[in-house]
Specification:
The protein has 269 residues and is α/β, with parallel strands linked by helices. It is built from six helices and nine strands; from the N terminus they run H-E-E-E-E-H-E-E-H-E-H-E-H-E-H. It has one domain: Nucleoside phosphorylase domain (Rossmann fold, 3-Layer(aba) Sandwich), CATH 3.40.50. Helices cover 30% and strands 25% of the residues. A five-stranded mixed beta barrel has the order 5-8-7-6-9. The structure holds hypoxanthine.
Length: 269
């Protein structure tokens, strides 16, 4: 894996990516932040050696490098999901590459369903902690000691320093930002009522991503923060059929708040 990472890194350096400070992962329906990045480097994942290619049509699958609030940003427009059939190693490979390129912080976003019924659709949630309900772990198998320990600590997977910046920024910009626990499931189907009822017992939001990337970031001692855009309310007692188009529409509306928050926090880092 180390050789593959180095080949990807060398390629990206040859394409002009130099000392990025902050890595950003943009989730489903949340790619517009890249319009705010002053950039002349945009690379299709399919051009990058060893990068998996995104299969979900609304994921653009591009790496964007440029300036946002006077910081050097490396943004993934589109991520890889376990339900697409990738291995955990493939899903998290870009995070390792970004860390080798030099990012010091990782900010992630995703679309998620609200299990906590006090959290309304269209609002944002700072992920305070997570539960890995995926049937796999990106650190399974041989450990690469050069990258991190065999048994990484997971007592604080999300940086409290970054989390506080998000909370302060939300207050300043008058944006509702809940805080809660995210449970990652495999998908691709949405949950049954019985599953929502079960998850509600131990989490505030449910989605199909983010946790693998956060586990790998922690393995490499890379501070991270993640925001869920809550696109639907998962009330088992009143559940209507879940429609991906409605989820995307909700994500597009809430995306404006997400962009404001991310820009504000990037400026403060
Ligand atoms: N479940 C899983 N993933 C999701 C949901 C959901 O209800 N909403 C958006 N992503």
């Amino acid at each position: 894996m180390l050789n593959k990472i180095k080949e990807s890194v060398d390629f990206l350096i040859s394409r002009g990516i130099k000392s990025p400070e902050i890595g950003i992962v943009l989730g489903t329906g949340l790619g517009k932040l890249v319009d705010e990045i002053k950039s002349n480097v945009s690379i299709d994942y399919s051009d990058i050696p060893h990068f998996p290619v995104s299969t979900v049509e609304f994921h653009k699958g591009k790496l964007i490098y440029g300036d946002l609030e006077n910081k050097k940003i490396l943004a993934m427009q589109g991520r890889f999901h376990y339900y697409e059939g990738y291995s955990m190693e493939q899903i998290t490979f870009p995070i390792r590459v970004m860390q080798f390129l030099g990012i010091k912080y990782l900010l992630l976003s995703n679309a998620a369903g609200a299990l906590n019924l006090d959290f309304k659709k269209g609002s944002l949630m700072l992920i305070d902690d997570h539960i890995n309900f995926l049937p796999d772990n990106p650190l399974r198998g041989l450990n690469y000691e050069e990258m991190g320990p065999r048994f990484p600590d997971m007592s604080r997977p999300y940086s409290s320093e970054l989390g506080e910046k998000f909370e302060e920024m939300a207050k300043m910009k008058d944006i509702t930002l809940h805080k809660g626990i995210y449970v990652a499931v495999m998908g691709p189907n949405f949950e049954t009522r019985a599953e929502y009822r079960m998850f509600r017992g131990f989490a505030d939001a449910v989605g199909m991503s983010t946790v693998p990337e956060v586990i790998v970031a922690n393995h490499m001692n890379l501070p991270c923060a993640a925001i869920s855009v809550l696109t639907d309310e998962c009330d088992p007692d009143t559940l209507e059929p879940t429609d991906i188009n409605e989820i995307l529409a909700k994500a597009a509306i809430a995306e404006q708040d997400l962009i404001q928050l991310f820009k504000g926090v990037v400026a403060e880092i």
